[in-house]
Specification:
The structure holds two protein chains of two kinds.
Chain A: E1 7-11, H1 15-27, E2 32-36, H2 42-49, E3 53-57, H3 63-68, E4 80-82, H4 89-98, E5 100-105, H5 110-158, H6 162-176, H7 180-194
Parallel strand pairs in A: 1-2, 1-3
Antiparallel strand pairs in A: 3-5, 4-5
Helix pairs in contact in A: 1-5, 5-6, 5-7, 6-7
Chain B: E1 5-11, H1 18-25, H2 28-31, E2 34-40, H3 44-52, E3 58-62, H4 64-70, E4 80-85, E5 88-89, E6 91-96, H5 97-105, H6 114-130, E7 136-140, H7 146-157, E8 166-170, H8 176-181, E9 187-191, H9 194-200, E10 204-209, H10 210-213, E11 220-225, H11 226-231, H12 233-251, H13 256-264, H14 273-281, E12 283-287, E13 290-293, E14 298-299, H15 310-322, H16 330-339, H17 342-349, E15 371-373, E16 380-382, H18 398-405
Parallel strand pairs in B: 1-2, 1-3, 7-8, 7-9
Antiparallel strand pairs in B: 3-11, 4-11, 5-14, 6-9, 6-10, 12-13, 15-16
The chains are: A alpha/beta, B alpha/beta.
Chain lengths: 197, 406
């Protein structure tokens, strides 16, 4: 391989994650990076771009199409191979756990491509962590809202203060071995049912 | 009772995963003391990778997949065994409206006869070549699939060279109808429900079926990591018994409405129930209001549909050699044949007295009428099973077959 720039194609239906990968590649000095979000027509994009490296997410149904280019297609001049094929098993595991895979033009030296897959694995993991945290933050916010409503119901119906209402919820939750938010949810639901129509 | 084993099974959202899904959802796996988790996947490549890293112990697989893997033709080159078949048939060939128009002008239709429609297609291909038009593009779901090999078999038998007269590409099944509608492909061979989906979308016309090209032909298998099979035989045997019972349930027409409802769920195929009935009844809407009734279109249980016939493995191998996917040698042929493990099937199903054929191989295409076979107490009926062109595959005469098709 010469020192020319690698042409890299990122295939990911998730546009945000794809742009994170793209940014990572550009940070690493790669200038010829293309991104495809659409699952349709991926074969034609590959024929046109003739990429050296393809990074694809594992939820993408086009992996079988990509792999068929190992032996079926006459339209791709340079055969491609799965990057982690027969290399080290820890890399395969890391890539699969992260949800990403990579393919390279046959003959491309491993040390030129490894940093690309390493970066993709890192960023896929970071993205999942971010998504998880976002989901947790959303559910925490929802929990806080329902607890506030339950406190309001208790304060009104029992004529107690906010702190006491919270203590009551907490004690009940502890006694029943459930989360405060679950008790609050049941209370809000029950109050809704008991409300005068 | 505590589960004797936890097994995670991967599957693709295709109707022929039914035996796996019903085994879990109808409790047959639980009855065997197994705790089985089903994981829906988006590509066969994922299934292979996740078996390689141990996420799955076994999976729904295209029958040629484990063979190709054992021959070292696919990435990762996993060692796999196929101890159980997940039914026979279930595929069809659908062409675009435009191609159908040209085929119709050449005498195609009204039904799904592979000879008549293949001859019409051959005329279209000849006309296109004479006019200097680009070759027709057909899609299959995977290079190592029954779809690829039956499409090629059909084309070649009708005088069309699949290597030079047409182009064959891979498209994931859920994207087939769209690729056909937008003109990215001119036709495809895929399993149900994807042909019926394309017809319902008005994107094309069904021109023939797997069952018409080769009646009672193999399609999917249970692919198992060879390591898991060696180290966990009691669990694997229990899984095979659960699948066998599930196949009986799936094959009973009294359960077809329930099976279609089960498969249509958003956790599985996520498609309307009416798209899932054609594969079960064999009554296909072909497009333009035409219909056809295909005998034994998809067979999940009867006719030895779950037995891993080593002659099936060798037929797939013969096609891999035919199309240059594999190099022939006696050792390779043996490896292909031994990927299928009737010995495991026999041992696992012995305690429940499942009817067994006497042999592990049969002459494919030899039965012109249904015939009872086997020495087991309950009878097993096989056939009729012919190839549409009348050819016969004798696995004991593999070299002669290979020579005759080159």
């Amino acid at each position: 391989m010469t020192h020319r720039d690698l042409t890299i194609l990122v295939i990911d239906e998730n546009a945000i994650r794809a742009s994170i990968i793209e940014a990572g590649l550009r940070d690493a000095g790669h200038r010829r990076v293309s991104v495809v979000h659409d699952v349709h027509g991926v074969g034609r994009v590959i024929e046109r771009l003739q990429p050296d490296v393809i990074v694809i997410d594992l939820e993408n149904p086009n992996r079988d199409l990509l792999e068929s280019m190992f032996q079926l297609s006459r339209s791709v001049k340079r055969p491609i191979a799965m990057f982690v094929d027969r290399s080290d098993s820890s890399m395969i595991e890391a890539a699969i756990d992260a949800g990403v895979s990579a393919y390279v033009v046959d003959g491309l030296r491993q040390e030129r491509v490894k940093p690309i897959l390493d970066m993709a694995i890192g960023r896929f993991n970071a993205f999942s962590r971010m998504e998880r945290e976002l989901a947790e933050a959303r559910s925490e916010l929802a929990d806080r809202k329902v607890i506030d409503r339950a406190k309001g119901i208790l304060m009104k119906s029992r004529g107690i203060g906010e702190e006491e209402a919270y203590k009551l919820l907490r004690t009940t939750a502890m006694n029943q071995n459930r989360k405060i938010a679950e008790i609050a949810q049941s209370l809000v639901l029950a109050a809704g049912l008991l409300e005068d129509p | 009772m505590a589960a004797i084993a936890d097994i995670t099974l991967g599957y693709m959202p295709l109707f022929d995963s039914a035996v796996l899904i019903a085994a879990v959802e109808k409790g047959f796996a639980g009855d065997e003391g197994l705790s089985v988790q089903l994981v829906r996947e988006t590509s066969w490549a994922n299934i292979r990778d996740r078996i390689a890293v141990g996420h799955f112990q076994a999976a729904h697989m295209l029958a040629p997949m484990p063979i190709a893997s054992n021959l070292g033709l696919t990435p990762l080159s996993l060692e796999l065994v196929a101890p159980f078949a997940l039914g026979l048939g279930g595929n069809a060939v659908t062409v675009s409206r435009e191609l159908w128009g040209r085929m119709f002008a050449e005498g195609a239709g009204p039904g799904t006869d592979p000879s008549a429609n293949g001859t019409a297609l051959c005329h279209v291909v000849e006309n296109r070549r004479a006019a200097g038009e680009s070759p027709l593009r057909f899609a299959v779901v995977h290079p190592f699939s029954g779809h690829n090999y039956e499409l090629r078999y059909w084309l070649a038998a009708c005088g069309i060279d699949p290597e030079t007269h047409v182009e064959i590409v891979v498209v994931p099944p859920p994207l087939m109808a769209d690729a056909l509608a937008t003109g990215a492909i001119d036709g495809f061979c895929a399993g149900e429900p994807w042909n019926s989906v394309a017809i319902a979308d008005g994107a094309g016309r069904i021109v023939t079926t797997k069952a018409s090209i080769w009646r009672l032909s193999p399609e999917k298998v249970l692919g198992v990591s060879a390591r898991f099979a060696a180290e966990n035989r009691p669990a694997l045997d229990a899984l095979l018994r659960a699948l066998y019972r599930s196949s009986i349930w799936c094959g009973d027409s009294a359960n077809h409405e329930e099976l279609a409802a089960l498969m249509s769920g958003s956790g599985h195929l996520g498609l309307p129930r009416e798209r899932l009935m054609p594969i079960l009844t064999g009554h296909l809407a072909l497009g333009d209001g035409a219909t056809d009734a295909i005998p034994e279109f998809f067979v999940p249980h009867a006719k030895g549909a779950t037995f891993p016939w080593q002659s099936h493995a060798l037929w797939f191998y013969s096609q891999m050699v035919r199309w240059g996917h594999a190099k022939h040698s006696p050792a390779q042929a043996e490896r292909a044949r031994d990927t299928y493990r009737p010995d495991i099937y026999r041992q696992a199903l012995k305690p429940i007295s499942a009817p067994m054929p006497g042999a592990n191989m049969k002459v494919e295409g030899a039965l012109t009428a249904a015939a009872p076979v086997g020495a087991s107490e309950k009878g097993l009926v096989l056939g009729p099973d012919g190839f549409f062109d009348g050819r016969i595959f004798d696995p004991d005469r593999l070299d002669a077959y290979l020579a005759s098709q080159s």
